[in-house]
Amino acid sequence: MSLYAIGDLHLSIGCEKPMDVFGGRWENYVEKIRDGFGALMPDDVCVLCGDVSWGMDLQSAAPDFAFIDALPGRKIILKGNHDYWWSTAAKAKGLLASMQLEGIDFLHNNCFFYGETAAICGTRGWFFEEEKGTAHDRKMLLRELGRLETSLKAAGDREKYVFLHYPPKYGHYECGEILDLLSQYGVKLCASGHLHGPALKLAFEGESRGVRFLTVSADHLGFEPKKLLD
Ligand SMILES: [Fe+2]
Ligand SMILES: [Fe+2]
Fold first, then answer.
1. CA 221 to ligand 1 centroid distance, Å
2. pTM for this structure?
3. Cα separation, 167 vs 187, whole angstroms
4. Ligand 1 centroid to 218 CA: how many Å?
């Protein structure tokens, strides 16, 4: 059993928003994703770090879930800023149950135990972009901090691997509150997505305050999930 992560699959099998139009790395990206998952075994676990489907509602995202479920390994999905299909995790779970897709779980106010000693924690995270300093910005950040702490607490004394959509450290930006939580809970590794194309140049990868940071956007990884743990 191995633990993998990849973010930002940006699938649109059930709706017309293919990423191939961006050309370059995104050309034939669905095939690249299928090939990239070829290395995974059925007992592996892969965390999908948000921006999973362009579907505007659950019905239009359903074909993307079917595609994801058919890839090898168990998949754990967290929410990205473009996952408009996500109204509640309960509704998404209901859709998966009705489609008999049993290989997908959602990381949302919870954690998943991995092996004997590790735990998979996380949430979407927050990124100021256009809203820095507004009341809404503060509210969203506090909500995400609460979700992350709930997830970390649920992990107990296990070794914590955190998965976010938004990078908490990027270029000159740092989300101090999220970085504090990661340090406080002794998090081993933090993987995030969201960054694409030229923005990837500003990704922070390396160690800071005892936490290892990784960027796992699909186009950054060549559409191959990154192995984190055996
Ligand atoms: Fe994205
Ligand atoms: Fe994103």
1. 13
2. 0.96
3. 15
4. 9
Determine the distance separating the centroid of ligand 2 and the alpha carbon of 154, expressed in angstroms: 26
Could you tell me which of 71, 72, 75, 66 has the C-alpha nearest to residue 101? 66
Q: Please give the distance, rounded to the nearest whole angstrom, from the Cα atom of residue 33 to the centre of ligand 2.
A: 18
Instruction: Give, as one character, the DSSP assignment of residue 9.
Output: -
Q: Which residue has the tokens 């996500």?
A: 86
Beta bridge mates, 211: 208
Q: For residue 31, how far is its CA from the centre of ligand 1 (angstroms)?
A: 18
- Residues flanking ion ligand 1, Cβ below 5 Å: 8, 51
Helix (H, G, I), strand (E, B) or coil at 74: strand
Tens of pLDDT, residue by residue over 58-96, are 999 999 999 999 999 999 999 999 999 999 999 999 999
Ligand 2 centroid to Cα of residue 117, in Å, is: 30
Six token digits for residue 125: 């995270």
pLDDT value at 193 more than 70: yes
Cβ partners under 8 Å of residue 175, min gap 6: 125, 126, 127, 141, 166, 168, 169
Per the structure, how many domains does the chain have? 1
Q: What is the CATH number of the domain that holds 128?
A: 3.60.21.10
Domain interval for residue 166: 3-229
Ligand 2 centre to CA of 192 (Å) is 10
**Partners of 120 in the β-ladder:** 112, 161
